[in-house]
Amino acid sequence: MKFFLDTANLDELKKGAAWGIVDGVTTNPSLIAKEGNPIEEQIKKICDIVDGDISAEVIAVTHREMVEQGKSLAKIHKNVVIKCPLTRDGIIATNELAKSGYRVNVTLCFSAAQALIAAKAGAYIISPFVGRLDDIGQDGMDLIRQIVTIYENYGYKTKILAASLRSTNHVIDSAIAGAHIGTMPFKVMDALFTHVLTDKGLEQFLKDYSKVFHDAPVPVGV
Length: 222
Ligand code: G3P
What we know:
Layout: E1 2-6, H1 10-19, E2 24-26, H2 29-35, H3 39-49, E3 53-57, H4 63-74, E4 80-85, H5 88-99, E5 104-109, H6 112-120, E6 125-128, H7 130-135, H8 140-154, E7 159-162, H9 168-177, E8 181-184, H10 186-191, H11 196-213
Parallel strand pairs: 1-2, 1-8, 2-3, 3-4, 4-5, 5-6, 6-7, 7-8
Helix pairs in contact: 4-5, 6-8, 8-9
């Protein structure tokens, strides 16, 4: 499973990139706005930090403008993946961009029917939002399972990117369901490292060693 960071914050991206487990980045207009720089500027900086797919979302609502904006976002860096919303216009734009060889991440997917449409339009990535479905009392993970089955049934090459992941359980369950990619906030990726028995075990190992050799390092953060 590929791990993407769902953030446009450069400090978080630098920390994540240093771990060597970040395969790409997803952004959306809300995340870009939070950082205060225009999208072109922020995406360029992100591309300098992470070498992998970097999703940059159009803010246009008509397919003509989406195609135009998408092409201009793709010029920023070879790793940019154009993100289009799952609207009728978004699907027309995805079709046109995909036919011209651009990679499109179709976002704001909340149903299996929408995911099927995106695959038919030639999307490179589909982004079903797990957490936002949970928020309205549905089971977001069911959607991931449905899309995995449907894409396998027909051999669609569209990659399933589990988005709106809010917890480590969301990441694990997406991996079990067979999502190709999980995109997560920095704090969720950070939490994936943590286990109380790892901390306890390390503390004990170092204590035991230092009793005999007196030069064991002091565990940090234990
Ligand atoms: O990638 C989509 C993601 O940013 C949405 O996450 O937590 O705002 O629902 P959230």
